[in-house]
């Protein structure tokens, strides 16, 4: 047994006492590493602003508001978005359609900052910031709001209270509900109630609303944040025919003041609201134009409309 081993054995079985003290373990100073003169390779930070020439090229001659420029997103080598470029104009109502797996949800994830692309950028006109470099709440603060497919409203609160809670600067359920609303806030809620067609249900608990009414309430809650761009994913899934008609009216009423992007599979509904339709396929834009032009495009018929 070496001296170090016997000292370790003694330390392990003997309680620490002032009389018996194990010799301190031998600590050999580490040999100094030969200094490397090479510097650490610098990783260039990604640009936080968009390329000026691309900005000009995408926005020239139109009332563009939001641009998605050459975005690629891969999952394990598979390209969910493949060099996708898309420009949305101010106040337009754009429908995005395409077969399952075309990349529609991934596109919304990139715009809202949930997914970071491998390459490409997203920007709003009037600002050269590349939004893909921001996090989700910074993007939301710039006025891009998203409505997911399932409505998420406060079931136990009334329609009015839900809208109150959605007002900017709301401090949470209790603080908001016991705070006094200003006249401007009250009027704003009343205008929203009218827009979403729920004035008569202002004091109904949200949990008692129909599926369609909940969807409208959630759209109303997003409107309280005064978005510049509203992304809506499959708004009419599960709705009755009458609710679909009402939703078409609502989305039409919203466009103009803000840009509305609707991702939808229901072609009858798309026909009822569409002005410009973008067809995605395999992460790329397959066709874009009026509903009539897109519907008669042989490529679109082959990969999408032909199957429905
Ligand atoms: N997190 C992920 N990991 C791996 N693959 C993914 C991921 N998210 C999406 N994908 C794949 O990327 C492709 C595009 O998916 P995406 O959900 O964007 O399509 P979609 O157009 O929204 O389809 P759907 O109409 O079915 O909603 C699909 O092949 C999907 O399987
Ligand atoms: Mg999807």
Topology as a string of helices (H) and strands (E): HHEEEHEHEHHHHEHEHEEHH
Strand order of the biggest β-sheet: 5-6-7-3-8-9
The biggest beta sheet reads:
6 strands, mixed
CATH hierarchy, class of the domain at 145-226: Alpha Beta
Secondary-structure-derived class: alpha/beta
- Amount of beta strand: 15-25%
Could you give the count of β-strands? 9
Could you explain the architecture of this structure?
With 308 residues, the chain is of the alpha/beta class. It has a domain at 145-226: 3-Layer(aba) Sandwich (Rossmann fold), CATH 3.40.50.300. 34% of the residues lie in helices and 20% in strands. It has twelve helices and nine strands. The chain has helices at 3-13, 52-59, 104-111, 136-141, 159-166, 173-178, 183-195, 211-223, 241-254, 267-273, 291-295, 298-303, and strands at 64-75, 78-89, 93-97, 119-124, 144-147, 229-233, 259-263, 276-281, 284-289. Strands 5-6-7-3-8-9 form a six-stranded mixed beta sheet, with helices on both faces. Strand 8 (276-281) and strand 9 form a beta hairpin. The protein is globular, with a radius of gyration of 29 Å. The N and C termini lie far apart (82 Å). Residues 1-23 have low confidence and may be disordered. Bound molecules: adenosine-5'-triphosphate and magnesium ion (MG). Residues 75, 80, 98, 100-106 line the site of adenosine-5'-triphosphate (ATP).
């Amino acid at each position: 047994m070496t001296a170090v081993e016997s000292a370790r054995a003694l330390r392990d079985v003997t309680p620490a006492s002032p009389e018996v003290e194990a010799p301190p373990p031998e600590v050999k100073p580490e040999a100094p590493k030969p200094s490397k003169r090479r510097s650490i390779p610098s990783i260039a930070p990604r640009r936080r602003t968009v390329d000026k020439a691309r900005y000009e090229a995408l926005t020239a001659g139109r009332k563009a508001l939001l641009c998605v420029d050459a975005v690629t997103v891969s999952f394990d080598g598979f390209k969910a978005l493949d060099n996708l470029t898309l420009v949305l104009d101010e106040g337009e109502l754009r429908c995005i359609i395409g077969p399952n797996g075309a990349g529609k949800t991934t596109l919304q994830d990139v715009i809202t900052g949930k997914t970071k692309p491998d390459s490409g950028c997203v920007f709003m006109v009037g600002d050269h910031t590349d939004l893909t470099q921001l996090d989700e709440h910074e993007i939301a603060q710039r006025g891009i709001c998203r409505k997911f497919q399932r409505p998420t409203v406060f079931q136990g609160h009334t329609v009015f209270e839900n809208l109150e809670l959605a007002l900017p600067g709301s401090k949470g359920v209790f603080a908001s509900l016991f705070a006094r609303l200003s006249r401007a806030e009250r009027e704003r809620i009343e205008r929203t109630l009218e827009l979403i067609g729920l004035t008569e249900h202002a004091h109904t608990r949200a949990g008692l609303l129909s599926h369609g009414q909940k969807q409208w309430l959630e759209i109303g809650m997003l409107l309280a944040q005064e978005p510049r761009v509203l992304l809506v994913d499959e708004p009419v899934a599960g709705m009755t025919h009458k609710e679909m008609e009402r939703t078409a009216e609502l989305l039409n009423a919203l466009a103009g003041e803000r840009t509305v992007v609707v991702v939808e599979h229901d072609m009858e509904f798309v026909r009822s609201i569409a002005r410009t339709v973008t067809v995605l396929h395999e992460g790329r834009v397959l066709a874009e134009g009026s509903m009539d032009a897109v519907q008669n495009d042989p490529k679109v018929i082959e990969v999408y409309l032909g199957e429905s």
